Amino acid sequence: MKCPVSCIAEMAVDFRRFTHFRPCIDLHDGKVKQIVGGTLSDNEGYLRTNFIASHNTGFYASRYREDNLTGGHVIKLGPGNDMAAQEALAAWPGGLQIGGGITIGNAKSWLDKGAAKVIVTSWLFPSGKFSLERLQQLSSLIGKEQLVIDLSCRRQKNSWFVAINKWQTVTSLEITKGCLEELSQFGSEFLVHAADVEGLCKGIDEDLVKVLGQWSPIPCTYAGGGKDITDLELVNRLSNGKVDLTFGSALDLFGGKGVKYTDCVDWNRIHPR
Predict the structure, then answer these.
(1) Closest CA to 167 of 187, 189, 196
(2) Cβ(123)–Cβ(134) under 8 Å?
(3) Is the separation of the CB atoms in 95 and 116 below 8 Å?
(4) How far is residue 110's CA from residue 87's CA, in Å, rounded to a whole number?
(5) Whole-number Å distance between alpha carbons of 47 and 39
(6) What is the predicted pLDDT for the residue at 202?
(7) Radius of gyration, alpha carbons of the chain
(8) Tally of CB atoms within 10 A around 200
(9) Please, are residues 211 and 176 in contact by the beta-carbon 8 Å criterion?
(10) What is residue 95's three-state secondary structure?
(11) In which band, very low, low, confident or very high, does the pLDDT at 47 lie, cut at 50, 70 and 90?
């Protein structure tokens, strides 16, 4: 059952830090889309798409700017998205993070184009194996405060392992307390998509949110499966307010029926930091 705006304030719990809604712009073939994460691959016939926007990226970035939604991310899912990404950054310079194909060779240029931070994933895994050296090099080049480490993952029994290459290749890097503590020395935030539930609107991975709240020493944003405005309260409770939440396919801004964008804006307003 959906919670009306009038009851959002009643969901507040007395935490020192509250979960916030973080906006997103997912790009595929130059368009804003919402995709079932587990179907991303080089085989277009396998792809399941929930939404293709008629608006350009500047429309969404401008909306986020007007509503003072900070810490949002623009994710380029494959090639052909650079111009659309640049349009979003131009609409809100310094207001959005950028991810997808980020390397040590282009990270600074994306910051120069207006990104608040860059989000790095696959480049940290040459030949499929995690390289701490690469992470250290990138962090030294741009500074840890401008670096977000993407640990989007897939579940393997009772554990989670980082997935790269459109979330199709599961690596050997397991999300553990020790892993998050070590990596946090080189970045300012973690971004974690639960790829197995991304785009399904059937509920978040509660176990993953809970351990992220317990283990992450730096701010962390979770995405995947959000279906209702009360998921903000749920993530707030499970993580003790330490993990932020992104809604995608369920959001009415992207054609969804489960979550009203205005309710998310109200949640952040009612729970200031």
Answers:
(1) 196
(2) yes
(3) yes
(4) 12
(5) 5
(6) 87
(7) 17
(8) 19
(9) no
(10) coil
(11) low
Residue 32 dihedral angles phi and psi, to the nearest 5°: -75, 120
Q: pTM, whole model, 2 decimals?
A: 0.89
| DSSP string over 24-72 | EEEEETTEEEEE-GGG-SS-GGG--EEEE-SS-HHHHHHHHHHTT--SE
Q: Where are the alpha helices (DSSP H) in the chain?
A: 57-66, 82-91, 107-112, 132-142, 177-183, 206-215, 230-238, 261-270
**What does the pLDDT average to over 246-260?**
92
CA atoms of 35 and 241, how far apart (whole Å) = 27
pLDDT per residue as tens digits for the range 184-220:
999 999 999 998 987 778 899 999 999 999 999 999 9
Helices (H), 102-252: 107-112, 132-142, 177-183, 206-215, 230-238
| Confidence at residue 33, expressed as pLDDT on a 0 to 100 scale | 82
For residues 204 and 135, give the distance between their C-alpha atoms in angstroms, rounded to a whole number. Answer: 29
Query: What's residue 53's pLDDT?
Result: 74
Residue type, 271: H
Identity (one letter) of the amino acid at 120?
Answer: V
* Confidence band, pLDDT 50/70/90 cuts, at residue 77: confident
Distance, in Å, from the CA atom of 131 to the CA atom of 154, rounded to the nearest integer, reads 19
Burial per residue of 215-229, b for 16 or more beta-carbon CB atoms within 10 angstroms, e otherwise: bbebbbbbbbbbbbb
Q: Which two tokens stand for residue 69?
A: 């939604």
201's torsion region: left (phi>0), alpha (psi -120 to 50) or beta? left
> Using CA of residue 90, residue 96, residue 100, residue 105, what is the dihedral sign?
positive
